[in-house]
Write the structure tokens for this entry.
Amino acid sequence: MFTYNDEKEIAVIFPDLNCATSGEDEADALLSARELLGCVLCGLEDDGEPIPEASHLSNIKMRKNEKAVLIDVYLPTYRMMQKTHSVNRTVTLPAWLSALASEHNINCSQLLQESLKKQLQTVLQTR
């Protein structure tokens, strides 16, 4: 449930999970909600605890400043994103480009990671 307050962050409450987060705007609130939902659900699974059944939206009583929002998270992808170990990838560059990057102290691995994250930002936000 998103709770809107004048000139404040949007509060995000998961009534069935007894947890909450917030976001500066709807996009940030949705991203924070997905992150929290993934964290809580993975934690319940890891601890062998049952995942509560979601309430029906029609059964949730809301005030004028609240809105029911469906939050989804694909746990296999969420778990994979939590793994921070690196993997080696072979990248082919023209020799002149590699030399020029080295001359200018450009870390090709870091640049590739940043570029991929930027390119996939929309995909990452929907997971």
The chain is about 45% helix and 10% strand. The longest strand covers residues 10-14. Residues 26-46 form the longest helix (21 residues). Helices lie at 26-46, 75-82, 95-103, 108-119, 121-125.
